[in-house]
Design a protein that fits this description.
about 325 residues, alpha+beta, five-stranded mixed sheet, 10 helices, 7 strands, extended
């Protein structure tokens, strides 16, 4: 390991700890992100806290960087807001949240707006359910601490720093039914953390980042797909079918053009350039023939190839539906 790598291995965790110091000891309370996620992950994470790897810490740092950047944008634009506003449940202080941005129309206003910020690689078409639940926890807790006449709204600001794009999912308002359900979940997490009950599992799109996945009862063979994964798989299947149809159509168009040019060609009109070039014949190695005829040479010129995960998504009809 180089001196720089060793230095960063120490500096990055220290920096992340400093950036998250305002959150306090998260093992002592249930936060909005805990409530929005899997109860088992939240409870076990508080019972057996573990350090994150450098890759995860860098993702966290990217989120802090994005938030700091947009805070400067808001200040430059003259917005009136506070950052990292802590709100505790008035009756259960172990339930609390930290609001990324709390906006005011003015200091005397009876309208407040919460912005929950997310930094991602690629912006989804719809916000993830966990993001929406996290926002509902924040809006609900804030509403409990304010005058009933104060109007509260919320939105989710998703930022892709690599692509230089952002999108706001807006027009959320407190929902008492949703909030009460989330508070029941929060109290379950508290009970599970204290060892009073076994934590429930909620498999979802973030399972791949969970350090407690290996022995999770939800991750067994032939498990039912979580809603978000079901929707992602359905969209993948639909897009893949469209891709097949497009590939077929492209092949027809390609043949039409090549039949017209009948060889090397270059032409243009109305903003379209067509350039057809000839690729010379070449020779490839027949691996099967080489192995059969010259096994000694085959072993000398081959090297192992790493395996990979193969994704297959296709229409499926449950047996009960087939029998109907």
């Amino acid at each position: 390991m180089s001196k720089l790598a060793a230095f960063l291995g120490r500096a990055i965790p220290t920096h992340q700890q400093k950036q998250s110091s305002h959150l306090g000891d998260r093992t002592g309370y249930v936060g909005a992100s805990d409530i929005a996620g899997c109860p088992r992950k939240a409870a076990l994470g508080k019972q057996c806290p573990s350090s994150h790897d450098i890759s995860t810490l860098l993702r966290f740092s990217r989120g802090h960087a994005a938030q700091a950047m947009y805070a400067e944008f808001f200040k430059t634009g003259g917005a009136l807001f506070e950052e990292e506003v802590e709100v505790r449940h008035p009756d259960i202080p172990e339930i609390r949240c930290h609001i990324d941005f709390l906006f005011y129309a003015n200091r005397q206003t009876k309208r407040l707006h919460i912005v929950e910020m997310k930094s991602t690689d690629g912006i989804p078409d719809e916000p993830y359910a966990s993001w929406v639940d996290q926002l509902h926890v924040q809006m609900g807790l804030l509403q409990l601490t304010l005058d009933p006449e104060v109007q509260i709204g919320g939105s989710i600001l998703v930022v892709d720093l690599n692509a230089g794009t952002y999108r706001e999912f807006n027009n959320y308002a407190p929902n008492k039914l949703v909030f009460n359900q989330l508070m029941e979940k929060a109290q379950h997490i508290l009970s599970a953390t204290r060892g009073e009950c076994a934590p429930k599992t909620e498999p979802g799109i973030l399972c791949g980042y969970c350090s407690f996945r290996q022995d999770c009862p939800s991750h067994v063979a032939d498990m039912e797909l979580p809603p978000e994964i079901h929707q992602a798989s359905k969209a993948y299947l639909e897009l893949n079918e469209q891709k097949k149809a497009l590939d077929t159509r492209l092949e027809v168009l390609k043949n039409d053009i090549l039949t017209f040019v009948n060889g090397a060609y270059k032409g243009a009109s109305d903003g379209i350039l067509v350039n057809v070039t000839s690729v010379s014949d070449s020779v490839i190695v027949d691996g099967k023939k080489l192995k059969n005829s010259y096994p000694d040479i085959y072993d000398q010129v081959t090297k192992p190839k790493s395996g990979f995960l193969k994704l297959e998504i296709k229409p499926f009809m449950p047996l009960a539906a087939q029998a109907a």
